[in-house]
Automatic annotation (TrEMBL):
<dbReference type="GO" id="GO:0009062">
    <property type="term" value="P:fatty acid catabolic process"/>
</dbReference>
<dbReference type="GO" id="GO:0052816">
    <property type="term" value="F:long-chain fatty acyl-CoA hydrolase activity"/>
</dbReference>
<dbReference type="GO" id="GO:0006637">
    <property type="term" value="P:acyl-CoA metabolic process"/>
</dbReference>
<feature type="domain" description="HotDog ACOT-type">
    <location>
        <begin position="7"/>
        <end position="119"/>
    </location>
</feature>
<dbReference type="InterPro" id="IPR033120">
    <property type="entry name" value="HOTDOG_ACOT"/>
</dbReference>
<protein>
    <submittedName>
        <fullName>Acyl-CoA thioesterase</fullName>
    </submittedName>
</protein>
<dbReference type="Pfam" id="PF03061">
    <property type="entry name" value="4HBT"/>
</dbReference>
<comment type="similarity">
    <text>Belongs to the acyl coenzyme A hydrolase family.</text>
</comment>
<dbReference type="InterPro" id="IPR006683">
    <property type="entry name" value="Thioestr_dom"/>
</dbReference>
<dbReference type="GO" id="GO:0005829">
    <property type="term" value="C:cytosol"/>
</dbReference>
<dbReference type="InterPro" id="IPR029069">
    <property type="entry name" value="HotDog_dom_sf"/>
</dbReference>
<dbReference type="InterPro" id="IPR040170">
    <property type="entry name" value="Cytosol_ACT"/>
</dbReference>
<keyword id="KW-0378">Hydrolase</keyword>
Length: 170
């Protein structure tokens, strides 16, 4: 199976914030942003694996800045590490001010997707070869994030999470 680069899965979705997608403060509703990120991440996972992919976990979401009504929002997703059947997807969210056009980082998130066959059974995915410094940094930290996610889901014993433990003991 051919190793792939993050740019082969990079998915960029640009859309605006409409009134039906806002909260009472006229900012983008969090659940709407989660759905947009899930969609972009799903396409990135498919581009990397060329398989059916399902969301296995939302590992991290930070709503650092509110996104006002009328903003142009760009959701950028790419595979940050591939394991056996699972892929970590890193998502960066940018917003464009409607008056000045200035682009600012609004949010980021990390999702885990799993490639499955037609019957829903996990299936192997290509490995990832990170190219840039940022891609290498995200790749390096992905294993401990996977272990944390599995520990929190009750699918791994904390004593087996070696990479994660090293963070606290080194
Ligand atoms: C995701 C799913 C396929 C995993 O199936 P499973 O029987 O647990 O399979 P496995 O234990 O072999 O796990 C498959 C991979 O997912 C990873 N995984 C499972 N749960 C995970 C979690 N919470 N966090 C991170 N990785 C996880 C495993 O580590 C494994 O990775 P690897 O093959 O790269 O080593 C299965 O739970 C599923 O179909 N869930 C529903 C998905 C769905 O419907 N999503 C939409 C939500 S509305």
């Amino acid at each position: 199976m051919r190793t792939k680069t993050p740019s082969e899965s990079r998915t960029v979705m640009t859309d605006m914030v409409l009134p039906s997608e806002t909260n009472p403060l006229n900012n983008l509703f969090g659940g709407e942003l989660l759905a947009r990120m899930d969609r972009a991440a799903s396409i990135a996972a498919r581009r990397h694996s060329r398989r059916i992919t399902v969301t296995a976990a939302v590992n991290h979401v930070a709503f650092n800045r509110s996104v006002p009504l009328g903003s142009v929002v760009t959701v950028e997703a790419a595979v940050s590490r591939a394991f056996k059947s699972s892929m970590e997807i890193f998502i960066d969210v940018w917003m464009e001010d409607r008056f000045t056009g200035e682009r600012a980082k609004a949010n980021e998130a990390i999702y885990t997707f799993v490639a499955v066959d037609d019957t829903g059974v996990p299936t192997e995915v290509p490995q990832l070869d990170p190219q840039t410094d940022l891609e290498k940094e995200r790749f390096a930290a992905a294993l401990r994030r996977k272990q944390l996610s599995l520990v929190l889901a009750g699918k791994m014993k904390p004593s087996d999470a070696t990479e994660l433990k090293a963070l606290f003991t080194s």
